[in-house]
Amino acid sequence: MLRQVLPALLASLLTGVAGAAEKIVLYGDDDYAPYSYVEDGRFKGIYVELLRQAAVLLAPDYELELKPTPWKRGLRDLELGSTLGLFPPYFRPNARPYIQPYSAPLYHEVVVLFCTEKVMKVPRKRFPEDFGGLTIGVNLGFIISEPMLVAAKQGKLAIEEAKGNNANIMKLASKRIDCYANDRLSVLYSAKRLRAAANAPDSIKALILHEAAVLSGEDAFIGYSELFQAGYKQDFIQRMNGVLETLRKNGAINPLLAQAAM
Q: CA-to-CA distance for 79 and 77, rounded, in angstroms?
């Protein structure tokens, strides 16, 4: 009897191991509202919710966990090969050669330049030609616009980094920077939340955001570490791309965008 039970038990155990879901961890920017951010200890946002929908479609083969991380640390971990993927970088193969490959696009963002009322009292129609001598805020670790980087290297304008949307909007309100470059929806969403806060300072309540220039249209991706090694890596990337394409065709992101715009 024991000889009959043992093979059956072993086969059952092996089947369970073979059928176990592969656990995958993807990291996301912890301070990029409304796309990916932490609020009241919860990781949330448009891309977070979209990838949670992807996780349902990837099951039972893959068990996907999403974790927040400071953007610059997330990039460093990709460069070291200690993590598989990070969202949502723009396509920057020359500046970040350690990211390879990129996923199917999550969404097409529109990167714009918001400036203070004082700055816009001077006619400014061409970027970067009409913005000389100004200080432009960007999020820490973000590579926003090639023309802006070139102009900064040439000393025509200054770029100043701060961690996240709120910090930059506060600096804009207090006139510590002249302009702020980032995705349009992200800036408007964060500014609205700051104004609505019970302890909002008068400078924030009085801040008027003037959209001075459209810098670029950028697809946002999951960026995968070229150095990260795992047997499941290629299959997971292909499966994720297929799922993201299905979600795109189904318009899954549209209600998430609409909710953020309310």
A: 5
